[in-house]
Amino acid sequence: MREVEQDRFKTLVSWATAHGGSLHPSLEVYKDSCTGFSIRVKLDRSPTSSDRQIPSSNSPIQAGDEVLSCPLNISLSYLNALSGQPLSVNSAKDSASNKSWFVFPPAFHDLPPHVIGRFFLMKEYLAGSSSFWHPYIATLPQPDVLPSWSLPPFWSEDDTMFLEGTNTGISAAQIRDQLQTEFKEARRILKDANWPNWQDYTRTIHNWAFSMFASRSFRPSLVIPKSLRDSYSLAEQLQMGQQHETADGGRSARKVAIDDFSILLPVFDIINHSPRAQVRWSVDDADHNAKTCHFHTFDTYQPGDQIFNSYGKKTNSELFLSYGFTLPETENLHNDYVHVRTKAGAGAGPMVQGAGPARPAGPAQDFVVSLRPINNPSSLVGSARQLVARDASFDLRPEFAHVQDSLVWDLCLAVVGPENKLSFISKILSESRSDGPSEDSRQHELECLRQILSASVTLPIEVIQVLDQVKQVLLAKLGMEYDKICETDPGAGVDDEGNEVVVEVEPQTRNQEIAIEYRAQLKNVLENAITTLVPDWQSEAMQE
């Protein structure tokens, strides 16, 4: 790292430590050539040369070690906008009693919590060195250095063209539209209230603030102790009709669920992602005085090794959209999947939730198709989403080897219709069933799915006929996705004789380079999956 960068991160760690945080003494912040600012195990330095670094033979980081801790009083989120103060029981009491309800105009109260949190980050950035959070904000990518934080929703028009027809391109456009609406409404409130320096809350800083929350934040339910949740009256989830309640003074006080917003944890967010990282974030809910989140690793690291966190089992499409990177394919791991959605699940859904707070996935509506067989040990994310066919030992029918198993079941039920669901289940299980629902209906459905997916099981002719229709529907869906990728290829065109051609396009920016690589992998995913349904489809297409 450059000296100025070293000074910034040294100041950050000192600031966090002064407020109750900790970083394992064997660790340091450094700049990795691939992953940027990161945390690693320190290298031993030779006693004869300050420049020469020699790895130690012992590992200072063992499985179970606490890597770092973050006191919630240095976190930054919507909750801080209630009082303008660091989180504490006192600031919670102030906001609850309306002594200092908001740091923004009263009309801001009606905006979604994640939007309010975003504008609070903007406010603290604009405050510069006078902000309590300045040591943290100074280490973040800065708004005026667009390439350092620009996620796909904020790419230039030339770069965005390279995402056309992809999961990320569609979701990025939806996020961009949503953010435009949210920004205009919030900025209008500031303008109407003649808020000090309202003109400084620009679209660029707003997009930056969104990117910081999208790529660095944590889910509050995982990192906020119960004592603080209770102090801020955060519900686990809101019931129907519970959105608002009347407070003293006649104002409508917002009821907020624990995951209606996201939270930034300084120093925590320096640790980069690995899908195989074994970690635990923990808070002591039994301790009424608990105000700290602890990060433990269950991996072993040698001197010079980078420490990793897990952002969850996310596909490259999800990582690309929310974090701006993808994981390369290796022999032991791939992260390439195409997201498909059934008609019942049409709409924005999980792929655009980066524009709002982090939420549970909800009902299975968004399904994945895998580059390799989905129960292959290298298909880590795909196998984690399987209901029954997770292990490599499962004798998965080849035609369904690359698709999420719940998609197969979803399509089966779509083919037979809700009125025939019970009889379909009975045929598979070879047993009679009553017309009423069973307490074991979930287990019956999972057993049906096992039977359907297992290549060694002989199924009734009626079930085979349903599966034939499922394969046709699946083929049509995958074929449509494949055609869309091909037709929107940046090099697609027509030659002088009217024939469709694809020429190689030389990327002009790093964004375009990443997008071309991403498109190629999506295409590989679909080709592999279609080949399991129609083995000779590519040679037949060439003959046409």
Largest sheet: 4 strands, antiparallel
* Percentage of residues in helical conformation: 25-40%
- Class by helix and strand content? alpha+beta
Mean pLDDT: 86
Strand order of the largest sheet: 1-6-13-12
- Work out the strand percent: 5-15%
Give the termini separation.
Answer: 56 Å
Number of domains: 3
**Contiguous helical run count:** 18
GO molecular function: protein-lysine N-methyltransferase activity
InterPro entries: SET_dom_sf, SETD3_SETD6_MTase
Please tell me about this protein's structure.
- The protein is of the alpha+beta class and 544 residues long.
- The chain has 3 domains: 113 residues, SET domain (Beta-clip-like); 189 residues, no CATH class; 207 residues, no CATH class.
- Helix content is 38%, strand content 12%.
- The chain contains 18 helices and 18 strands.
- Strands 1-6-13-12 form a 4-stranded antiparallel sheet, with helices on one face. It has a two-stranded antiparallel ribbon with strand order 2-3.
- Helix 4 crosses helix 8 and helix 16 packs antiparallel against helix 17.
- The relative contact order is 0.10.
- About 8% of the residues have low confidence.
- GO terms for molecular function: protein-lysine N-methyltransferase activity.
